Every structure is written in structure tokens, then in C-alpha cells.
Amino acid sequence: MKGIIEGITMYLKALPVLAKPKYFKYVIYSGLLSVVFYCLAFVLFWYGSDAATDLLTHRISTDWLRGTLDIVSNIIVFVGLGALLLLLYKHIVLIICGPIIGKLSEAIEKQETSSNDPDSIGHLGTAYSTYRGIRIVLRNIVREIGITSLLLILTFTPLAFLSVPLIFIVQAYYAGFGNLDIYLGRHLRINETISYVRSHRLFTTVNGSVFLLILLIPIVGAFLAPAWSATAATLRLMNDEVRNVSSN
């Protein structure tokens, strides 16, 4: 319950922080990039779902069988393609917008803690940070695709009604993972980050859930989601013992 409350309240606390003019440029730049990929993902989903459904049913000549399979394939394609595009959208946005929202997170940490000590902000080196970020994104993509694929099998069973909520939870967890890593990347190495996120699964999932729900707001949600979610995660992690994890 604590993780749920923290996950939601941090989004509320992030709003007045993002309202400060000194952070506007980060919100605008990351928001514009996010909207571009959001629109591309929507177009692919809109046209791709129809094309995939036609591909699955166009060879069937029996009307009643074609109609039944058309309904079933629509459901499968809608869930599967939607989950895949959302999965890719999250990670692409994190890669493209990462440097921008990373700078936002760092600026918030420095300004909101009134820290003048560069070491207190945490730096693991540009080369290592780049390698680290790519490795974590690839790790998460592989795991998320694997788990999501297994959950899609539920659509062929009596437990089909569980597939959508479970896929949402998986998507939320890895979305939250990426948001937390914007901050954790400056303080923890890969194994330390994975351990930290696992020990804070509930907060991570709630952070990612709100991120996904924000995306349901057309255009505006895509514009705000990256900076808002990263700021919410940063404010929470600033109050935690993150810097002490690597020394334990």
C-alpha cells in the first residue's frame, strides 16, 4: 500500500516542480520527440491491425467461419500489436529522450537538494553510462517481449480475460523500470540497479502504470509523460538511500 500511495503522490508533487520555468526546455524537447513517435506508433497500429487481420482471414471462403475468425483475430491482433507497439514506444522514447530527461533529473536533483558538490549528484562516466543504458534497455526489451508473448497465449484459453490486465502490469513494471533508471543510472551500476528495482517492485509498477495511463490522453499525454514520469521517480529516489546501495 505504501508503494501505491508513494507512486501516485510523487506524480502530484512533480507538477509544481515541472511548472518552474527553468525546467521548461526539458519538458518541451522531450515532449516533442515523444509526440512524434507516439503519432508514428498510432499510425502503425491503425493500419497494421487491419492489414494483419486481413492476412489471417482473407483465404477463408466460408462466410460463418470467416466471420468468427475475423472477430477472434481482431481481438488477438488488437491486444498483441497494441502491446508490441507500446512496448517499443516506451523503450524508443527512453533511448531518444533519455539524454534530455536525464539532464532534467540531474538538474532537479541538484536544484531541489541545493547541492553544490558534483560528486553528490553521481556520475559513472559518459561511455559507461551509454553502454549501461543500452544494455539495460535491451535486457528489458527481451524479457518484456518474452513475458508478453507467453501472456498472449492466454487469449486462446478460458483465462483470456486475464491477458490484458497481466500484460498491462508487465508493461507498467518495465516502464517504471526505465523511469527509475533515469535517476539510478547516475548512482548505481547495472546489477545494483536491477536489485534495487526488484526490491521496489510495487512503486516501480505504480510509477509505470501512471505513465501508461497518462499516454491514454491523446497527444497531451505523450507530450507530458516522459518528463513527468521521470520527475516523479527522481523525487522519490532522492529521498531514498540509493547512494548507499553500492557501498553495502
Number of strands: 0
Estimated helix fraction: over 70%
Number of domains: 1
Q: What are the low-pLDDT stretches, counting only 5+ consecutive residues below 50?
A: none
N- to C-terminal distance: 27 Å
C-alpha Rg, in Å?
20 Å
Structural class designation: mainly alpha
Summarize the helix and strand pattern as letters.
HHHHHHHHHH
Number of helices: 10
Mean of all residue-level pLDDT scores: 79
* Global outline: globular
User: In percent terms, what proportion of residues is strand?
Assistant: under 5%
- Main sheet attributes: strand count, strand direction, barrel closure: none
What attributes characterize this protein structure?
248 residues, mainly alpha, 10 helices, globular
Task: Report on the architecture of this protein.
- By secondary structure, the protein is mainly alpha-helical.
- The protein has one domain.
- The chain contains 10 helices and no strands.
- Helix 5 runs antiparallel to helix 6.
- The protein is globular, with a radius of gyration of 20 Å.
- The mean pLDDT is 79.
Topology:
Elements (H helix, E strand, L loop, with lengths): L1 H17 L5 H34 L5 H50 L5 H4 L4 H27 L10 H22 L5 H10 L1 H15 L4 H19 L3 H4 L3
Helix pairs in contact: 1-8, 1-9, 2-3, 2-9, 3-5, 3-6, 3-9, 5-6, 6-8, 6-9, 8-9
The gist of it:
By secondary structure, the chain is an all-alpha fold. The protein has one domain.
